[in-house]
Every structure is written in C-alpha cells, then in structure tokens.
Amino acid sequence: MPVPNIRHFSTSDKIALTTLLEEMQDYYGVACPQRSVIESDLSTLPAGVEIIVAETDKIIGFAAFSAIYPGPGLKSGLFMKELFVTAAARGNGVGKCLIQAVARVAVERGHKRIDWTADRDNPRLLSLYSALGALAQNEKVFFRLAGNALTLLAEMRNP
C-alpha cells in the first residue's frame, strides 16, 4: 500500500467521508443516520471540531479532534474523539500516520498533550498506541451522559 496523503478534511470530501463513517458505524455495531444527514452534518461541524483524512486513491481513514482546556499545569491539549481506518487498509501504518498528523498539529499550536479513548477489547489497537509511546491512563474513568439521562439532567431545576 502506498504511503497515504494526510490532509485536513474539505467539504469536497463529504461523500467519501460519509462512506467511511457508515463503515465505522457498522464496525461498532451501532445505528447510522441516513447519508443525507451525515453529509449535512459534515457541512456544519460544531465549532472547534477538526478532521484530518488519509487518502491514497480514496479516503481510507480519518481522525477527528478538538482543542481542550485546561489540562495539567493549566495547559491546553487536543482530544482525539475518533480514529478510524477502513478494514482494507488496517495494519499498513495508516492509523500511525493519522496520529502523527494530530501530534504535529498539537506541537505546532503549543498544546501539551493528546488524549483519547480506546476499546479495551482490541489488543492490536492497544499495542499500536503503546508502540507510539502513549500511556494508558488507568486512574481515570470514562463517563458518558446521553439520551434520556442527558435530557433529564438538562431539564432539572436547581433548588
């Protein structure tokens, strides 16, 4: 496999990235919105969200991230929300290239770290992250507030 070109997402990538996002949803075994909804969402990303893509003859992977503050020492960092590589390109260094690109963005902008989550039951992925020098942060617990619980909390009146 040729070395992928890594670059920032542009709106002309919407259709190709939509296909990859559909594959990602299938990989995780979760429902996927209609293509038109995904394409519309890609046109109106929330402020601060950045996506980089890896491409050869087509887009084969992406990383989505945002700046966060504060971190240790009251320094900023990046949070990588998603890293995904199409099944056909996995194991060829595409994920590493994407993480390196995110690291370059962090360093160029003066951020002091990158944080992300990973599935505990994917030893190949965990091995990749460790090989890059990333350290698992076992002292933290990942929480999520979504769906009805999110709505109920938002509607709750403070005493």
What does this molecule look like?
By secondary structure, the protein is of the alpha+beta class. Helices cover 36% and strands 20% of the residues. It has helices at residues 14-28, 35-43, 94-108, 123-131, 147-155; strands spanning 5-8, 50-55, 59-68, 77-85, 114-116. A 5-stranded mixed β-sheet has the order 1-2-3-4-5, sandwiched between helices. The radius of gyration is 17 Å and the shape is globular. The mean pLDDT is 93.
Rg calc: 17 Å
Structural class: alpha+beta
Shape: globular
Helix content: 25-40%
What is the number of strand segments?
Answer: 5
* Largest sheet geometry: 5 strands, mixed
Main sheet strand line-up: 1-2-3-4-5
Write down the overall mean pLDDT: 93
How far apart lie the N and C ends? Answer: 60 Å
Keywords: Acyltransferase, Transferase
Domain N-acetyltransferase: 4-159
InterPro entries: Acyl_CoA_acyltransferase (IPR016181), Diverse_Substrate_AcTransf (IPR051016), GNAT_dom (IPR000182)
Protein name: N-acetyltransferase family protein
Q: Can you give me a brief rundown of this structure?
A:
The longest helix is centred in the first third of the chain and has 15 residues. The chain is built from 5 helices and 5 strands.
Task: Spell out the key features of this protein.
159 residues; globular; 5 helices; Acyl_CoA_acyltransferase; 5-stranded mixed β-sheet
